[in-house]
Amino acid sequence: MNKAVLTVLAKDRVGIIALVSTRLSQLDVNILDITQTVMDEDVFVMLMLVDINLSKASFHDVQENLRKLGEENGISIRLQREEIFDAMHKI
Amino acid sequence: MAILNTREILDTIRMIEVENLDIRTITMGISLLHCACEDMVKLCDNVYDTVCTRAERLVAVGREIEEQFGIPIVNKRVSVTPIALIAGGTKAEDYTPLALALDRAAKTLGIDFIGGFSALVHKGATKSDQVLINSIPEALACTDFVCSSVNVGSTRAGINMDAVALMGETIKRAALLTAKRDGIGAAKLVAFCNAVEDNPFMAGAFHGVGEADCVINVGVSGPGVVKSALARKQNEPFDVVAETIKKTAFRVTRMGQLVAREASKRLGVPFGIVDLSLAPTPAVGDSVAHILTEMGLEYAGAPGSTAALALLNDAVKKGGVMASGHVGGLSGAFIPVSEDAGMIEAAEIGALTLEKLEAMTCVCSVGLDMIALPGDTPASTIAGILADEAAIGMINNKTTAVRLIPAPGKVAGDSVEFGGLLGRAPIMPVNKYSCAEFIKRGGRIPAPIHSLRN
Question: Are residues B269 and B170 in the same domain?
Fold first, then answer.
């Protein structure tokens, strides 16, 4: 397993989950867990725990690919290794 | 099975994006002891080759970690064995060529600073130490990334007042030789009492003789995170303030520990220490002074500042110690005047004086850091200020440092601009009464007694 946390922030609209998960599927990135909510009426927040082990692309390429997808669609997509969150919040 | 915790993840992202949490530096310490030889040209080649080979992947690995973890690493640096220790055999009268070799290595590697153009003279100076100190002004004027430090005192040895007097002259000359750039040479030069061997922060980083061949030290930066955490605790008593800082420092340090471990693994170099200093940057929202104002002071420097800083730094250490396997370096509050927006502001309106800054060093501040003085400040006055700071360090068993910039042609009230992390500094007024006769005495101040404390 090569786990990472994907964070998507955007102005809420139809199709964001579809957009992101379609691209993940094309990249052979497996989704392990999803949580999603809309805050302050229109801020779309989605967090995913993903495994990029199956992907033929490197971590860097997956990250770049998603960043561009975000840019093209006016949303923010961030991919970070899971350890950083564990380090900060777990003893 | 890992479970996503929305609040924790968003907390982390907020700290990085909004509150300027970052890793200030990954500093690779490199031993140059094996480079020593009798020929200066050969020595320069040895130094250049060793640094370039050891640190070849430092910048690339730093970038890789930044990208994969989504945490900015502001600087990648190298510290080396104090040059005075390896250059004696050359019998050269000038060590500037070695500074140039270090600078060339820094440029080849693409790192931000290289430290270790240094001498340790807390008890006495060798011929080599003297040559090095005499070479400092020229070395700093003709290089871009080299940093220099000199240790002039220690709790065990006392204070070498000959070295203090010499450093007064050296600081002055380093500023004069870089007069066109407001004396930036002096901004890359620090004089210490009780210097540490594993400090990742510049300008004082060098790789001590008690260290291994190569080691990774990390310094974190998170004043903005602490300030924001305190902003959510308005009107609470100090117990709550201390607890909040401890928890925040724990998180910040864990981040540093993770980055240090990753860098160490990827570079195949042992992990040394995480330095628990809250280094600020000139960016808005990344200021140590603003933590003090958040605690209820109108400006840093107001009465209460020393107490506030004592609490802050102690809590940072308590929180940080548990978060990291090895803590070291300076681990004190960094309040370089020019590099901290709140300190600049406080100095400009006159809330913060040199004397108050000196008082703050007694509790935990690392020293008088990045303070610009009028250009006509005599060398003896600079030496006097250094002697005072060194005395505080010597008696209190702590590291203290002085990085003063007598900005050529400037007077109190003007300001100087160094750019980048070095920031902008208002010229602070200096006590105008002379200590020339005092400094002229030379010799050593004996090491202090450690019983009968008061």
Answer: no
Identify whether B294 is part of a domain: yes
Q: Judge: A59–B68 Cβ closer than 8 Å, yes or no.
A: yes
Last residue of a domain, one of B193, B210, B226: B193
Interface check B234 vs A, CB under 8 A: no
A81: closest chain B residue by CA: B69
- The reply to whether A49 touches chain B by the CB within 8 Å rule is yes
- The DSSP bridge partners found for residue A8 are A46, A77
B279-296 pLDDT, tens digit per residue, is 888 777 889 999 999 999
Same domain, B321 and B396: yes
> Taking CB atoms and an 8 Å limit, are B6 and A89 in contact across chains?
no
- Reference B438, options B362, B392, B373, B386; nearest CA is B386
Start-to-end Cα distance in chain B: 56
The predicted model scores a pTM of 0.92
pLDDT in tens, B228-282: 999 999 999 999 999 999 999 999 999 999 999 999 999 999 999 999 888 888 7
Task: Determine if the peptide bond prior to B203 is cis (ω within 30°).
Answer: yes
Of B141, B159, B193, the last residue of a domain is B193
B49 interface with A at CB cutoff 8 Å:
no
Q: Is the pLDDT of residue B1 over 50?
A: no
Cβ–Cβ below 8 Å for B12 and A84: yes
Q: How many residues are there in chain B?
A: 454
**Nearest chain A alpha carbon to B249:** A88
> Looking at this predicted complex, what is its ipTM?
0.85
